[in-house]
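FIELD: query
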Amino acid sequence: MAIEIKVPTLGESVTEATVAQWYKKEGEAVAVDEALCALETDKVTVEVNAASAGVLGKILAPEGTTVPVGATLCLIEAGAGAAAPAAKPAAPAADTKPASPPPAAAPAPAAPANLAASGPAARKLVADNNLDPAAVPATGKDGRVTKADVVTFLASGASAPAPAAAKPAAPSGPRPRAEREERVRMSRLRKTIATRLKDAQNNAAMLTTFNEVDMTAVMALRDRLKDDFEKKHGARLGFMSFFVKACVAGLKEIPAVNAEIDGDDVIYKNYYDIGVAVGTPAGLVVPVLRDADALGFAGVEKGIAELGKKARDGKLSIAELSGGTFTISNGGVYGSLMSTPILNPPQSGVLGMHKIQQRPMVVGGEIKVRPMMYLALTYDHRIIDGREAVTFLVRVKECIEDPERLLLEV
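FIELD: result
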């Protein structure tokens, strides 16, 4: 009996996906819950598993096909050849010719095979970092290398570049430009990022206002209490929690920055779901920290750490990427001194943090060296006036320069 494997429900507002990769070929045996293919949506990559053991029959949606929710991806002949996977390990030549020397070289092609069966994010990480796939410990099903495997391998400080000797000798003259180009299909996530950012430029009246903040007080407070904070709460005390709490204070004072336009209406949101932009190998994602106003510093730090780890491992759910009333983007972690962040529609404001840099400042009539950070607020001028934008940014500045305000909510 043929069983249809269909595109599952992918989350609110997600109606279609692209078939990124098939892990199995037609005629291959599959086990219950074994991953068959990867679907790439606007926000995340999800795997579709086999509902029954059997043999993969007809693949109805080849790689690269865009499929709506509920569409049939493939057919599985239930029960047919279900025991085939158990017989596969007996296939290698080492079982039939134990005394023959050639099997010693057999493991060599196994790494490319495992990598070929891995997800697109894992393959890209391996290629970008010039790793030898055989050196990456694989924990995925059927020996597949997952993105988390590659991230863990890189974090360990290990590396396994491809042997330089395998490269052909360089030509005497420069190759034609056409031979030095590489055409790569844009991922669905990257296409969505491009579309949404262009829509923001086309639809919103974006304007950016700047200020600078003296980080002396926050840095001194952090240095004094970070060890006690981590010992008690099990989380690092970073700067992001201060900025999240400062932004919540500003949003409460200037509600328009926490609002959005819906047709001819303005929706004022009396809750504070703060998006924190995270750069990943697949692109920029903005997981959302829910009800940030109800969280203490420890809750904010733990929430951000958990969302950041999920983002880097590609394990964010669509629910964790949906919604959000305001966004914070920290370009300073990459060394950016100043930038104009772009809105994350339909939100009306985004705060850009930047690199902390020692600069000479006039303090009390004297020139002193202070750790300074430029702040940028990009806002939708259709709903937020310049006075409101500047007031919000000044409020954030005051809370950072005098963090006791956050504790006393003044």
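FIELD: remark
The mean pLDDT is 83.
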